[in-house]
Amino acid sequence: MIIQREPLLNPVAVKDLRPTQITVGMREVALKRQMIRTQSARKTGTFLGRHMVPVVLGPKKRNYVTDHHHLARALLEEGIKDVFVTVTSDLSALDKDAFFVVLDNRGWMHPFDETGRRRDYGAIPKTMAELVDDPYRSMAGELRRQGGFAKDTTPFSEFLWADFLRRRIDPDVVAKNFDKAMKEALTLAKDKDADYLPGWCGPTSD
Length: 206
Prior knowledge:
It comes from Mesorhizobium qingshengii. The chain is 39% helix and 11% strand.
């Protein structure tokens, strides 16, 4: 099968984009919404030209997003109707069941809910508007911005960090005092217990 990596010349409606995960961090979405809102339309257009949304073509030629879910949700909420996409693979010849199996095995989907529990493929929303908030995914994004770990090419690496934090930081603390939770997260991120995670940059004995 030939892999197409050229951007589509025609824009795709944001409302028609299909997620490949169940959750996003709504704080992350809010940050992207703020960025869009505070810059000019021209600057936003330039930004979107450089950050095209990667998709896999699935059954019925639908566009399944494999990255930039937070951006897509932010665009939707800010009323931006269209976005350019980059097709990384055309799997439109597969039936739905086979398609999801291929996505899963290639690491192009993340069927885990806001509690960190793996769900059936059917639990993945059909639209960006239906994505569920995972506060720990927001923590992971903020943790990376604060230098808690390095950006990494591992698919869904922030979700691995989110799961790590979910097992160690009380959800009530995250909900009621996000800054306090982040201080705890920064300490945990440097611990040896986190050295298996992508982008870990804690102290070493070398």
